[in-house]
Fold this sequence. Notes:
The complex is a heterodimer.
Chain A: E1 3-5, E2 10-14, E3 19-21, E4 24-26, E5 31-38, E6 45-50, E7 56-58, E8 64-68, E9 73-78, E10 87-95, E11 102-104, E12 108-113
Chain B: E1 4-7, E2 10-13, E3 19-25, E4 31-38, E5 42-49, E6 56-57, E7 64-66, E8 76-78, E9 87-94, E10 102-103, E11 107-111
Parallel strand pairs in B: 2-11
Antiparallel strand pairs in B: 1-3, 3-8, 4-5, 4-9, 5-6, 7-8, 9-10, 9-11
Amino acid sequence: AQSVSQHNHHVILSEAASLELGCNYSYGGTVNLFWYVQYPGQHLQLLLKYFSGDPLVKGIKGFEAEFIKSKFSFNLRKPSVQWSDTAEYFCAVRSVGGYQKVTFGTGTKLQVIP
Amino acid sequence: DGGITQSPKYLFRKEGQNVTLSCEQNLNHDAMYWYRQDPGQGLRLIYYSQIVNDFQKGDIAEGYSVSREKKESFPLTVTSAQKNPTAFYLCASSGAVYQPQHFGDGTRLSIL
C-alpha cells in the first residue's frame, strides 16, 4: 500500500539554523513527490515538486528537496531558516499511472525562534 | 479567477444526521480528492475521483460517501456511520498528470 512517513513531528530551530525534514514513502512504481506548507491560519501551498529529471529540485522561499530513489526519500532542506518559516510542512506522494492516488504524511511542525 | 470553492466554511451536525459538504472547481480539472485533516495525523485520503462517474475509496472511506456526476463538482456526505466526524475537511483537484493539487479553504465540521 502507498504510504508516506515523516519522522519529525515537531522541530524547533533558531533563526539562521539549517533545516532538514525527512520524508520516506513506500510505493513500488513511479511516483511524483511534493512538499506543501501550511502557515498558521492559511491553506496548503505548494513548496516544490518532483516529477522526473534532476533529483534535486528547488522551490519557493529558498527551499530545496532531493529525491533519492534507492532510499525512497524526498527530504526537504533550507540552509538558513527565518522566523517566517514557522509552519507545518507536509510531504505527499502521487502514484503515476492508473488511479493517481495522492497520499500525505502526518506533517512536521516547524517552530523558528527569533 | 479559477479555484476550488468549499462550502460551508463551518458546519454543525447533530448526532445521527447525515451532512453533505460541497466542493466545486472551475479549473477544468479531471481529478478531485477529499481529505480529512486532524491534528497530528496530517491529511488522510477519504475518496478520490479521476473522471466523472468514477471514484475510488481512499484510506479512510468508512462512514463517507461521494458522487461525481459533473466534472466540476465532488460533494462529500458524512453519514451517521462515521463515528468521529469532527474534523477539518479539505477538497483538492488536479489537472494534467504532471500538475500538483490545488486545495480549497476547507470546511470545519463539528458535532453538536
